[in-house]
Amino acid sequence: MDDKIKDFKAYREKMNERLLAANNNKVIKRIFNLDTNTYMEGALSSRVKEMLGLVSSMVLRCDDCIKYHLEKCYELEVTSDEMMEIFAVANLVGGTIVIPHTRRAMEYWELLNQEAR
Amino acid sequence: MDDKIKDFKAYREKMNERLLAANNNKVIKRIFNLDTNTYMEGALSSRVKEMLGLVSSMVLRCDDCIKYHLEKCYELEVTSDEMMEIFAVANLVGGTIVIPHTRRAMEYWELLNQEAR
Amino acid sequence: MDDKIKDFKAYREKMNERLLAANNNKVIKRIFNLDTNTYMEGALSSRVKEMLGLVSSMVLRCDDCIKYHLEKCYELEVTSDEMMEIFAVANLVGGTIVIPHTRRAMEYWELLNQEAR
Amino acid sequence: MDDKIKDFKAYREKMNERLLAANNNKVIKRIFNLDTNTYMEGALSSRVKEMLGLVSSMVLRCDDCIKYHLEKCYELEVTSDEMMEIFAVANLVGGTIVIPHTRRAMEYWELLNQEAR
Amino acid sequence: MDDKIKDFKAYREKMNERLLAANNNKVIKRIFNLDTNTYMEGALSSRVKEMLGLVSSMVLRCDDCIKYHLEKCYELEVTSDEMMEIFAVANLVGGTIVIPHTRRAMEYWELLNQEAR
Amino acid sequence: MDDKIKDFKAYREKMNERLLAANNNKVIKRIFNLDTNTYMEGALSSRVKEMLGLVSSMVLRCDDCIKYHLEKCYELEVTSDEMMEIFAVANLVGGTIVIPHTRRAMEYWELLNQEAR
User: Fold this and answer.
1) CB-based contact (8 Å) between A27 and chain E?
2) What is the least distance, in Å, from the CA of F38 to any CA of chain A?
3) CA of A44: how far to CAs of A41, B66, C20, in Å?
4) Among C79, C109, D8, F43, which is most buried by a count of CB atoms within 10 Å?
5) What's the CATH number of domain B3-116, 1.10.490.10, 1.10.10.1100, 1.20.1290.10, 3.65.10.10?
6) What is the pTM of this model?
């Protein structure tokens, strides 16, 4: 696995564990829980929901959230052609301020795809 | 047509015309143009793209943008069950700050559905 | 009760009920639930937590969220002197973009206080 | 004067006075003060600074702040051709989410210009 | 002192000095000044005000601002149990988009606490 | 050229090329195109427009966008006295949340100026 992917996953996992191990964190725990449930298959497929999560993360310009949803989209076999259209909506709605995040998203998306080869 | 829908559409149309009729507005015109093209059928369906536009508008908390995409989603036959899941993603990702916009979105969505009866 | 307060409460209540009565709204319901629990007495008092909720709503510039937390702060006997210091932090951190929301917050805060006389 | 302009100015003035008359508002007062000083003639002209204030208000999507800076730009004789280019930058950088605010800005700008005839 | 804390403090101090030493920076200087005054003891304690500053920084997702207020909260003896409730409000109000910032906040908070041992 | 400037430019260029080389990226391409056109000489000079782009990037707190517009402002001979007034507007309108971005902007601005000596 590429180091950028590995490092990101490791840090996220480590700190999530620390947050979940903390005392007095009931609300945080429930939000994490809800985060998992929200993207499950329902009236909309997980695939579409992860796209919704991704585009939201892009217009809110949260790089780590973007990476997370890119991973999920990759697992759920979103194609690169579809991905470019998600990037398009995000850049149109959110403006050129989204471009630097799109550059990093593109890099991470390519890394995820190179993994698989 | 319900007055809330009619008034919103009339104001939007009137002011869009004024913006497009203005001198020296080449960039604005091209953004409007691009706005139309971005949501056309492609690797993703217009239906999914309108959902992406809606969820983006919700987390960025723009009521008029939300209304616009609700209209489009309604035309493209997004169901109320699907809509509730879009609302769910928006409120999870964007937080409780999205709730007041969800109340207004719910009202507008119900008006759009009552129209059709 | 002043009409501005009454109307705001009535609309909020009506639309919350409609959201909670909708099918397929499990996530929304749980977020509403969590919203109630988060502000309960704990390591921090409800009073301080409502102040935290208020200042967050101010810097995120959500008028309805501001009104809601102003009501809660009023119930929990936050004083006007304390309120001005919350406004101060919000305007300092969030910038002059928060001023119009502070004007409306001030108006609502005064209405809440006039009620009681 | 058009009612939309008059009402906006009256409310702003009334509530600013109430904020400035409040006890324990030293920070708010100093922010208001600083707000006046920042736009004064300096290395940059007031005219350019008001444009900077306007475009910032547009990308942050604060309608009342936009109106305020539109008034100032009008007083400082910003032309409609220049205004359209400010709108262009705001919509490009901030995305289509800025369009509804641009519609309202356009309306207010036209009202300000009609005043003068 | 841990390197992450030391480096952050050193960079902040160095660049603040450069900003304050610059010509024509009167407004910046006054904002820095106001920043100090706003958090002083008043109707609300510095302790509560720093919590307000922290939660504002979290929902606005500014990592450096978060670190700064974490340091202040630590100095003012905010407990870890209280901190988890501030994190809870921030994540509830601001949504899951706040989670990556909470992970980094948690890491920095733990570093600050390890210092003291 | 200083490494910070060189690295930033190289990464930006590399990833922009990858985005423009991707299939199915028509919208992205047109946004990039529009981005170039918007800042061209018009009713407002490129110089003023780049200032508008910079202040927008600062209040929206996008470090890479800030760097890009700092480079353009430097090329168009914006002075350091003018720059401090742009920083002032950004920090006033956007609040203290903009300070960490101003520190980094100041550092990059100084690097750009040291280049030239």
Assistant:
1) yes
2) 11
3) 6, 19, 19
4) C109
5) 1.20.1290.10
6) 0.97
